[in-house]
Amino acid sequence: MARPASRFVCQACGAVAPKWAGRCEACGAWNTIVEEAAPARPGPAAKAATGGRRIAFVPLAGESAPPARTPFGIPELDRVLGGGLVPASVILVGGDPGIGKSTILLQAAARLAGAGARALYISGEESIDQVRLRALRLGLSTAPLGLAAATSVAEIAASLEAERGVSLVVIDSIQTMWLETLDSAPGTVAQVRASAAELIRLAKARGFALVLVGHVTKEGAIAGPRVLEHMVDAVLYFEGERGHAFRILRGVKNRFGGTDEIGVFEMTERGLVEVANPSALFLAERRGNVAGSAVFAGMEGTRPVLVEVQALLAPSPGGSPRRAVVGWDQGRLAMLLAVLEARCGLTLAGADVYLNIAGGFRVTEPAADLAVAAALASAVADRPTDASMVFFGEVGLSGEVRMVGQAEARLKEAAKLGFTAAALPRRPAAQGRGLAVPDGVTAWEVGHLADLVAQIAGGEKRRQGVAQPGRPG
Fold this sequence. Notes:
473 residues; Ribosomal Protein S5, domain 2; seven-stranded mixed beta sheet
């Protein structure tokens, strides 16, 4: 009897290897290659049946109505999705264990069911009694939500085929689903890919929105094959620190709306509660008379968000100073420290540098450079920045401050929260139209980083590691 064909597949990236190895050559992960049964190859008859049919091409110009949307009734979630659920769309939600993925989806499904839509919640990780206990704690036990506990994709597909008028199906989680036609265990690359493909096919055919919950790796990426993110219409990540009550729902892909939109929630005993004004929340505990602090006026999608940047410098006991960052890119901090030393005359090489974005928020845009530089200069000079000023702008390697987008939206958010001054990049004269600055806000245009350092240092010569800043000639 012939031995069934097999292949070796990396469970981290899905690459196929000719034989088993301890390390995947494609992604570099260790101990992730597993032997799986090779898929059956189609015979000549199958190839002939699938080939030869012509496809139709249509003109690019045409009239297409915008997709109809069904709002969840949770404004922060609807904002990230671009206005609500699109029929037959597929959404992938990832996040660390215990961050609140199941909680927010149970709340959203119950809210949708309470509005009269048919919503189904299928759990592969918890029993029905466990889900009911969570619903009771969240005050959702009376919601008309369909609930089931299953892991077999064949059984789930047969059940969904028999349902009528379904608007939403939640699968928690895709790593627990399995198909009987595959010999591999649930959670492997083959099972995740095949199970997701079957569920997505069913959602597109039946017209209901599908939400898949995905586990994440220790690096924060969704576990399983990367192709899973390409198969879905939207990818949402739940972010947050265990020590903070705030949770950030960030959209990194959305075929029906903008990306990089965020929704801010607070974890309470009654579940996740949306935060309508995250800027006021992140600045609630700020003290403006402390050195090493600056307020950054950032943008997350179309939403302006103000957060506090904190910097601390301490003498380094050894010969290798430490650089610790929370909520920002460590490589960008190293670049900014080099610019401050080489272009602005600050002495930072012998000090440990600690940088923190307060509130557990994560900043990714380059516009935070100016706020970080202000916090570092304030920490070195031991002089507080102006408590009524916000900062934003990108810093180049020569020390120039570059323009960033949506400056007017940042200034409006700052004015709304009571800030009266803003340090921002100098606007080139060639751009013509001036910047619309809100009433009561004074705009200070910074052309070079040395100007900002000189203002914070107060023009003093060397003092606590601060050299007289001067622009390179």
